[in-house]
Amino acid sequence: MNEDHSNGPHVLVIGGGVGGLCLAQGLRKSGIRVDVYERDRSARFRGQGWRISLKEEGTSALRSCLPEDLFELCVATAILPATRMAFLDHLLNPKFEKPVPLLPHDVFFGVNRLTLREILLSGLDDVRHFGKTFVRYDHAGDGRVRAHFADGTVATGDLLVGADGTNSAVRRQLLPAAEVDDIGNFVYGRTPITPGMLDWLPDVLVDSFNRLIAPGDAAMSVVTCRTREPVPEAVARLAPGARLTDMPGYLAWMVSSDERTGWAAGPSLTAERFRQSDGETLHRLARETVADFHPLARRILDEADVPATFPVGLRSARPVSPWPTTDVTLLGDAVHTMSPGRGEGANTTLRHAELLRQALVGVAARGVPLLDAVGHYEAEMLHHGFQMVSASLGNPLMPRPSVTSSPRPGPRGAG
């Protein structure tokens, strides 16, 4: 049952990704007024990625913020867990292999990013606003904060939360000196699991965390993504009102280039051009990079859904000092974006969404001054968030910053 804190602050969330939507669900569950503004035109407008791994702090936040039926839907539509970890050379010769222990099924699990986003959007139809590109904020005469959007509209609230990702427009205004390093890039893609595929796919690449590494460090990883329960059946059983896209089984793959020679396109392929490349171009780059890999590894790319290939630019935020607390704050990648080396990014963001929800419940239920609550949130968020940034950079599989810093990324708006 939702708590009634309708006299609490009105929260404006800029960005409808995992963190912003988890916060919105938690505030809605707690009876606190919230509106979410997302630059995309719909939940499916852009590539969401293929898989994220949820750990205890992430699932704990989801369990706290979501209605029970939606959390159970997350668990039911989770991806079957990996059974082993394997490192191989590019010809599939094993270098290291160990089993992955069985963990609690509702605490540690992988999810399809689009599925999770659609679950997080469920029940928010009246408070989420698509097609809203954030431009700037200012402060109203009555002490509240106003968000201005590219379409000329304005929203007014008591607290504005920038949850608009690595290229955050909110952060650019709040912390103009903040810097983000480009530390490399990957090509991500998807190959549907078709009848007979699992017969020719090497066993070591099925239901495993794996990495194939060639001389020079060009690398490829393959993740088997099959849901525990078919998505339509899980929706019908648990949350008939949810609108989820069916997710038949697929292989999610990642290719990174040789550290010495880079991508086949050469030095002209800057980080910005890489991020703007289309699926066909990126698939070609990936295919050329694995040209000397085992034929069965190459076959995975040959049978891929080519238009679904997309770029992932690896970014890592430099630590920022605490700033004077105001009615504008930040959440997730908007402040402490990190490399995926330890799989901590989404889990950290979810943890902080729950942390901010708890702080705002204190404002609504116990009369804690808003700026005091936000200040306590920011102190813990910054301390923990940049611990995770450092730990992710320390992962031996992740590149070190080369570094190219991006203090003022080009505008991308909300989301």
From TrEMBL:
Residues 319-389 form the FAD-binding domain. Pfam families: FAD_binding_3, NAD_binding_8. Transmembrane segments: none annotated. Keywords: FAD, Flavoprotein, Monooxygenase, Oxidoreductase. One of its GO terms (molecular function) is FAD binding. InterPro entries: FAD-bd, FAD/NAD-bd_sf. This is Monooxygenase. It comes from Planotetraspora phitsanulokensis. The lineage of its organism: Bacteria, Bacillati, Actinomycetota, Actinomycetes, Streptosporangiales.
